[in-house]
Specification:
Helix content is 32%, strand content 10%. By secondary structure, the chain is α/β, with parallel strands linked by helices.
Length: 279
């Protein structure tokens, strides 16, 4: 059987557009020689389609051993392509029940990247997570702490960061081979696919607010926009009766007034009656 190093496996996957940093379960120092890596997938559609295409080219180095997705139709499709793989709808069950898993690929919707990734780390699995790695800064920091604490190999799927060309450029800069770098110009053609909504939704009137709904429920109807401000008075105001004030709000007649200004240095009456002690 062909011997595969971790670095060669990472390089092979990186050049095909699906970066993985993989180590066997229970080991963070090296890869078992002459043995295949057992890979589990959390999410089998969308971006994961590219992973499965590359895994076929790496059949001598890795196995697809487990599949997890909440969509039963997508799961059945991947199961037909990989009949040896176990199927699950809950990644927690997959990672606790199936033992022959060395690494996990997380390619679920963005807001579920963190819980699936950190749970896999807690089970001692190597993890590669699709971008974005997490939903918040706190989650990203927790993933970094978890990778160190559990001693597992991890990578966010910016696969070009694992490519030899980019690593070589970093070594050139760190060694000073091109001198001091003062300015960097970056160009990108992204995004090359449609983003956001293709068409703005048709305008619609805003939903009724809470006060308006309550008014309609009582049969009073909404006030007319043509009514001048202050013209619509309550029955209590028209009859001359004072409306009871709300709890916690002082009555306008009993509000404190601003004190009259005094000249600086002028004592008040109480202070002037106090005896003056001589030094």
């Amino acid at each position: 059987m062909k011997t595969t190093s971790r670095r060669s496996f990472v390089s092979a996957i990186s050049t095909t557009g699906a970066g993985l940093l993989l180590l066997p379960a229970g080991s963070a120092l090296g890869y078992r020689a002459n043995e295949k890596i057992d890979v589990a997938f959390v999410g089998v559609q969308g971006v994961a389609r590219g992973y499965f295409g590359r895994m076929k080219r790496l059949a001598e180095q890795a196995n697809v051993t487990a599949l997890c997705d909440v969509d039963s139709a997508s799961l059945a499709k991947r199961k037909a392509e990989h009949p040896q793989a176990g199927t699950f709808r809950d990644y927690r069950e997959m990672l606790t029940e199936q033992k022959n898993i060395d690494a996990v690929v997380v390619s679920t919707p963005d807001h579920t990247h963190y819980p699936a990734s950190i749970f896999a780390m807690q089970q001692g699995k190597a993890v590669t997570t699709e971008k974005p790695m997490a939903h918040t800064v706190w989650e990203a920091r927790q993933l970094g702490l978890a990778a160190t604490h559990y001693g597992v190999a991890t990578q966010m799927d910016n696969e070009h960061h694992a490519a030899e060309a980019l690593r070589l450029q970093v070594e050139w800069i760190q060694a000073g081979a091109i001198g001091e770098v003062r300015e960097v110009h970056i160009y990108t053609n992204r995004p090359v696919w449609p983003q956001g909504m293709d068409k703005r939704p048709d305008p619609s009137p805003p939903a009724a607010g809470r006060r308006e709904r309550d008014r309609r429920r009582r049969g009073r109807g909404a006030p007319s926009d043509a009514t001048p401000r202050g013209a619509a008075r309550s029955s209590a105001a028209r009859s001359g009766r004072r409306r009871p004030r709300r709890a916690g709000l002082p009555d306008a007649r009993h509000r404190l007034r601003r004190p009259e200004p005094r000249s600086v240095g002028t004592p008040n009456r109480r202070a002037s009656r106090a005896p003056v002690r001589s030094g």
